[in-house]
Structures are given as C-alpha cells and as structure tokens.
C-alpha cells in the first residue's frame, strides 16, 4: 500500500508544476461534551497518505530541494494515547508513511513557510476548521508581502480539487479490490434481508441484521444510513426511521451498503413481502427494471455520463404515459419535467471513497463528463407514487390502486475498456428470481 499512496502523490505532483499543496486531516469531532465520535479521516487526505489520525497536515512540495512530501502529526504522548488510542508519532510517520520529513503538528506555523515561499501557487481547500483556515490565510498574506518586495512567492491560491478529484474519479486496481470487498459484504447483507422479508418482521430488525453483518465481516458499518422502507415508506427517499412492521403484499425497498476499508457499497433492491409482487407493483417494477437495463447499456468509454440518466428518464416517461400517469409527447414531458412527481432524483453518482464520490459530472457548462475505464457509478432509477402525490400541472391524478408504490433498483457499475461490469450482480433483481423465495 505504501507504493500505492506514493504513486497517487506522484501523479498529483506531476501536474503541480511549481506549486505547494496543503491537506488538512479531519478533526476529531466531539459530540455531547466529552464523548468522542468515531474518527473518519478526510477522504482527500486519506487518498494521498493512508494516514488515519486526526490533527495532521500533509504538504506536497514537488519543487522543494529536499522534501517533497511532509507530514505534520501528533507526537507520541502516552498521557494522551491512553485516552484516545496509539499515535504513529513523528519518527514512524517517515518510516511507515514514506514522508521525506515529519514534524510535530505544533511546529506547523514555524516549519511551513520553507515549503511555501518559493512556490508560485498554493493549493488548499478551505474546510470546516476555521482556525486552521486562518492559519493558512495568514501564511499566505505574509508571503504576498514578501512577493511585493522580492518578486517571488505564491500569488495564487486554488482549491486542490481541480487537480486531485479527476485522479480520484478513476479507480486503481487496489481501490477496486476494496470496492469489490465492500460490495461483496453489501450483497451478502441483501441476501439476508431478502430471506427476512416476511410479514410481521419489523424494518429495524432487518436493518439490525444487515448492519451486524457489515461489522461482522470487518466493515466499519453502514456506508450511509440504511433505508429499510416497507409499503408507502418506500416513497420517502430518505426514510431511515425503519420502524414499521412488514405486511403481506407490501413492497420492501432496501437501500443499504457496507463501508469497508474506506470504500463503499451502495445497493437498492425492492423485494416483494411474502414472495409475490402484486399486479400494479409488478408493472411499475418492470418499468424501472427496463429503465435501469437500458441506462446501464449506455455505459462504455466515450459515452457521455448524462446518457445514463437521460436514457432512464426516457424509459420511465414512456412507462408513465402507457400507464396514463402522464399525457403528452415524451420529448415535451421530459423538457418540462412533468415526470418529477414520480421520479425526482438523478439516476447516477460516482462511487468511491465517498458514497457520493468526488469528480465533476460536466466538462464545462454545456458538455457532460465522458465515461472512461476505471470510473465507478451507480445506476439507480426509481418510480415513487406517494399516497398524497400531486401530479404536475395539466396532468391527470394517479388512480388509487397505484398509490403507495415505490420502487428503486440500484447497482454499482464499473466502466471497463469495452463497456461495463455490474459489480453488484450478486444480488438478483429479475422479478421471477425475487419471487422465488
Ligand atoms: N443511498 C444513497 C444513494 O443511493 O445515493
Ligand atoms: Mn446511490
Ligand atoms: Mn443507495
């Protein structure tokens, strides 16, 4: 792994010219007086260092004569470690994490200028730590005064996402291995949930079993709050109360994934409770499934990212017209977003260190990002007919037998050299298969 992190830094530094980049770790958030939250490293920081402690700063200075990668870390201090856990310390930050130089974090203000003063640009992301933002601004202002007299120094300050996030968008083999592991655990948990989807079970019981499995398999826990939504709860996109008992004839929408080694699974399936979809449920299910099938078929290098969503919307809208939920020409209905009462979210997001991973979805104001091998995206169309849903202007009401039906099908898809690979194929989605229990 040490080499992997080194390669990532090298790739970033290759585009940095005569600049210096400063990355701040996540802070140890404190909740309710003295109780510590579980620590979760900042994803950019982790991507470049693999270093998993708070109160740290990483500096990349490719033009510096001696030190290109510098870590500022919490020193070893047993009185603190006995409360909050062992620290790597200054010496091992070099040995284990490959830093050319390491210092105690307390020396930041004193040691930082030597790595900034000859750069012509600083890369820094203004984060939630206001005090630290002020520290960096102060350093920069002092270097600007220096520039006024000496004619060198960083005159520009830029967010590192312009350079770093395109790199994070394309996953390495090492990253894909971790993603496959996170997904394998997520798939296993969905199998468990599918087995449990019987009348009388509470949504939270299924949630508990899934999250128990996440942890038992070595994951950190859920990648995001697990959604276990039966009946009309499936029409609430972020339903996380998970408090209702399943009833025969319900649909059960489960959107849950495991976080493992900082990577995430993100899977949604909509199961029939008691083993069989009702007639209306099945019709909606088939439309969403077809929307997803055609959307996934758009995934290959060179195709625009937007084609995935556009294709899903096209199929969903045609379905809505057929069912009489919408009246009009598909093109017009799509342009005027008349489908939004029943499909209100986007079809895809990038997936990686963050569940909604970094990386721009557009190249510029007009053009979509182009798909390329190594990207991982979700494909998650749905249709939601909430009990009290209001149709768009000049559109018909939906008849009562369709109300309370919510379906989403979500897979995680890798862009390959020739097309795509559905990483989440281990959990079935064909209705016949899901009815087989
Ligand atoms: N569960 C979060 C998402 O699907 O985007
Ligand atoms: Mn998702
Ligand atoms: Mn999801």
Automatic annotation (TrEMBL):
This is Xaa-Pro aminopeptidase. One of its GO terms (biological process) is proteolysis. It holds the Pfam family Peptidase_M24. Belongs to the peptidase M24B family. Its cofactor is Mn(2+). One of its GO terms (cellular component) is cytosol. Gene3D superfamilies: Creatinase/methionine aminopeptidase superfamily, Creatinase/prolidase N-terminal domain. InterPro entries: Aminopep_P_N (IPR007865), Creatin/AminoP/Spt16_N (IPR029149), Creatinase/aminopeptidase-like (IPR036005), Pept_M24 (IPR000994), Peptidase_M24B_aminopep-P_CS (IPR001131), X-Pro_dipept-like (IPR052433). Residues 1-133 form the Aminopeptidase P N-terminal domain. It is an enzyme of class 3 (hydrolase). Its EC number is 3.4.11.9. Keywords: Aminopeptidase, Hydrolase, Manganese, Metal-binding, Protease. It catalyses: Release of any N-terminal amino acid, including proline, that is linked to proline, even from a dipeptide or tripeptide. It comes from Roseofilum reptotaenium AO1-A. GO terms for molecular function: manganese ion binding; metalloaminopeptidase activity. The lineage of its organism: Bacteria, Bacillati, Cyanobacteriota, Cyanophyceae, Desertifilales. The keyword Protease applies.
């Amino acid at each position: 792994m040490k080499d992997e992190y080194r390669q990532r830094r090298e790739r970033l530094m290759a585009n940095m010219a005569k600049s210096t980049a400063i990355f701040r770790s996540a802070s140890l958030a404190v909740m309710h007086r003295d109780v510590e939250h579980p620590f979760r490293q900042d994803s950019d920081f982790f991507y470049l260092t693999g270093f998993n402690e708070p109160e740290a700063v990483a500096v990349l200075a490719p033009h510096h004569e001696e030190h290109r990668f510098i870590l500022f870390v919490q020193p070893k201090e047993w009185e603190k470690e006995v409360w909050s856990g062992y620290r790597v310390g200054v010496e091992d930050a070099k040995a284990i994490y490959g830093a050319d130089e390491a210092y105690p974090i307390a020396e930041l203000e004193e040691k930082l200028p030597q790595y900034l003063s000859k750069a012509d640009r600083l890369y820094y992301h203004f984060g939630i730590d206001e005090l630290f933002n002020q520290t960096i601004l102060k350093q920069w202002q002092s270097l600007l005064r220096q520039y006024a007299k000496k004619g060198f120094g960083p005159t520009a300050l830029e967010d590192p996402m312009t350079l770093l996030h395109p790199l994070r968008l394309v996953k390495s083999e090492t990253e894909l291995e971790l993603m496959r592991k996170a997904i394998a655990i997520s798939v296993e948990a969905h199998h468990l949930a599918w087995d449990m989807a019987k009348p009388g079970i509470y949504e939270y019981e299924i949630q508990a079993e899934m999250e128990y499995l996440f942890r038992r398999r070595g994951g950190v826990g859920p990648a995001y709050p697990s959604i276990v939504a039966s009946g009309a709860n499936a029409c609430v996109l972020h339903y996380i109360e998970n408090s209702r008992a399943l009833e025969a004839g319900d649909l059960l929408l489960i959107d849950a994934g495991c976080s493992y080694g900082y990577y995430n699974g993100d899977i949604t399936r909509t199961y029939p409770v008691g083993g069989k979809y009702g007639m209306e449920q099945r019709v909606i299910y088939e439309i969403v499934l077809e929307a997803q099938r055609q959307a996934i078929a758009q995934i290959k290098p060179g195709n625009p990212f937007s084609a995935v969503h556009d294709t899903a919307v096209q199929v969903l809208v045609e379905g809505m017209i057929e069912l009489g939920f919408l009246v009009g020409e598909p093109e017009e209905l799509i342009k005027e977003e008349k489908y939004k009462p029943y499909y209100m979210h986007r079809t895809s997001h990038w997936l990686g260190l963050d569940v909604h991973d970094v990386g721009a979805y557009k190249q510029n104001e007009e053009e979509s990002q182009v798909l390329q091998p190594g990207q991982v995206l979700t494909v998650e169309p749905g249709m939601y007919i909430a009990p009290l849903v209001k149709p768009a202007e000049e559109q018909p009401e939906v008849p009562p037998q369709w109300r309370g039906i919510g379906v989403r099908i979500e897979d995680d898809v890798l862009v390959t050299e020739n097309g795509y690979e559905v990483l989440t194929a281990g959990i079935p989605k064909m209705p016949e298969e899901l009815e087989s229990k």
